[in-house]
Amino acid sequence: MLKEIDHVAIAVDDFDKMVEFYSDKLQMELKKIEVVEDQGIKAAFFEIGSVKIELIAPIDEDSTVAKFLKKKGPGFHHIAYKVSDIENSIQELKEQGLEMINETPKIGANNKKIAFIHPKSTAGVLTEICQQG
User: Fold this and answer.
1) For the segment 92-110, what is each residue's pLDDT rounded down to a tens digit?
2) How do the residues of the chain divide into helix, strand and coil, expressed in percent and rounded to 5?
3) DSSP readout, 45-66?
4) Cα–Cα distance between 61 and 58 in angstroms, integer?
5) CATH number, position 74
6) What is the Cα–Cα distance from 6 to 48, expressed in whole angstroms?
7) Mean pLDDT of the 51-67 span
8) How far from each other are the two terminal CA atoms of the chain, in whole angstroms?
9) Are 92 and 85 spatial neighbours (Cβ–Cβ below 8 Å)?
């Protein structure tokens, strides 16, 4: 079902400062910045080897990322895995007893179909599955 790691997401409270940090201090190449209105976030994408690092920051006070930052502060947010058939993967995960946050895919950054597995089912790690749209 899972093909490979797609990205690791880090929630940040000072988007511009952290984009500059990853670009200048860590010397990672900024690939793209995108606003995902539907999720109330903006995201910056960096790559290191075959893994993407996604910095996410809220643009909406009611977004899940804004709530995450208020509760936990900046830091690791989620890990995302590529799947080839997200609808089938969601069904398989549910059949295995995992609790899904999204039982139908949403459209996320980079026009990918995404769905999240609840951290209760994954040892406290918010886990995303994604399929290129």
Assistant:
1) 999 999 999 999 999 999 9
2) 30, 45, 30
3) EEEETTEEEEEEEESSTTSHHH
4) 7
5) 3.10.180.10
6) 12
7) 95
8) 17
9) no
CB 77 within 8 A of CB 10: yes
Between the CA atoms of 86, 37, 66 and 25, what dihedral angle is there, to the nearest 10 degrees?
Answer: 90
Range of the domain at 85: 2-132
Cα angle value 107/120/37 (rounded, 5°): 25
- Please report the sign of the dihedral spanned by the C-alpha atoms of residue 88, residue 121, residue 106, residue 34: negative
Helix or strand or coil: residue 35? strand
Query: Looking up tokens 């509760």, which residue turns up?
Result: 71
Count of domains for the chain? 1
Predicted TM-score (pTM) of the model is 0.93
Q: Distance (Å, rounded) from C-alpha 10 to C-alpha 65?
A: 10
